[in-house]
Amino acid sequence: MTAPLERVLRILLEDPAVPRYGYDLMRAAKLASGTLYPMLARLEEENLLTSEWETPAEDGQRPRKYYMLTGEGIQVVRQELAEFAASRGGPAYGTRPVPGVTS
Amino acid sequence: MTGRVLRASEWLIWRACWGLPDSIRDERYCEWTAELPHILHDSEVRFALHRALNTLMFAADQRRCVRPLRQARAASLREQAGALAAWSLYNLVLIADVALVLLGPASPFVGFFGGVFVFGMGGAGLGLVFGLGYVGCAGFFGFVGAFVGLFGVVVRLEHLQSFDLASGSDA
Predict the structure, then answer these.
(1) Under an 8 A CB cutoff, do A27 and B44 touch?
(2) Which of B96, B97, B153, B170 is a plausible cystine mate for B125, CB 3.0–4.6 Å?
(3) B112, B102, B84, B85: which is closest to B146 by C-alpha?
(4) CA–CA distance from B114 to each of B94, B148, B151 (Å)?
(5) Which of B30, B42, B65 has the CB atom closest to A33's CB atom?
(6) Which ipTM was obtained for this model?
(7) Interface of B with A in 62-121 (CB under 8 A)
(8) Closest CA to B29 of B52, B11, B8
(9) Does any CB of chain A come closer than 8 Å to the CB of residue B32?
């Protein structure tokens, strides 16, 4: 897993229910469009990501396309990030125990 | 200035999308151009010039996005061309063999045995194509049959040229 991909996945996993636009992801991950969009296309091909067009606004602005992790994507990404973090010896993302909950 | 920047950025994206497969070109163009006003009016970027530059950079960098898609399309086209060439060769071999089978015995130029040989070659070629699916071998038979047939035609034409019509004998 490359560092840019890791950044994008972490952002998408922060709140999987929130739709993310391409430019928002670019800004958050500090990536150029030429790096981000092929990555999104690949994730979408692998069914980890889903995209939707927003409903057209009345002010005539073009509808934007937003991206969200799929149910399968959330699981796979959590696992991948955990493995990636473990391989680097860092803390695993999304695997921290929630206080008060015992597994 | 914003209008010009938007138009220039849209043109850059349009240029980047040029050559993409039809199925995805419009979608990519719409997706990327829809982001332009949001980049150009991004309230988190203070200076207008910076925002304009970001917009142009966003549009210009889309060339990198379409490169793998174009390469995939080129590979697909090469594959199609290869399949078409193979299909054409197959049909060429088939037509040649059928022609040899039909014209071999009917041709007055190659003589009886030549005709039988050409017919045999064409028949063997067709048998290989339909019976065993060996297009390459059938092509070889077709080629040999055609070569012998042509050789027979040339020999017979030379013979006819040297034939003296008045006396009815060879000159």
Answers:
(1) yes
(2) B97
(3) B102
(4) 20, 7, 10
(5) B65
(6) 0.78
(7) 62-65, 68
(8) B11
(9) yes
Tokens of B88: 């054409």
Question: How far is residue A87's CA from residue A80's CA, in Å, rounded to a whole number?
Answer: 10
Q: Determine contact, residues B10/B59, Cβ cutoff 8 Å.
A: yes
Structure tokens at A6: 């890791």
SS3 B18: coil
| Contact: A64, B34; criterion CB under 8 Å | yes
A48 φ/ψ angles, rounded to the nearest 5 degrees: -90, -20
Contact with chain A for residue B50, Cβ under 8 A? no
The string of pLDDT tens digits covering residues B65-115 is 877 777 766 777 777 777 777 777 777 777 777 777 666 666 665 666 666
Do residue B31 and residue A65 have CB atoms under 8 angstroms apart? yes
Residue reference for tokens 């390459």: B136
Tell me the pLDDT of chain B averaged across its residues.
76
- CA–CA dist B102, B123 (Å, integer): 10
pTM across the whole model: 0.59
C-beta separation of A49 from A12 below 8 A: yes
For range B140-167, the mean pLDDT: 65
For CA atoms B18, B19, B20, B23, give the dihedral sign.
Answer: positive
> What pLDDT is attached to residue A55?
84
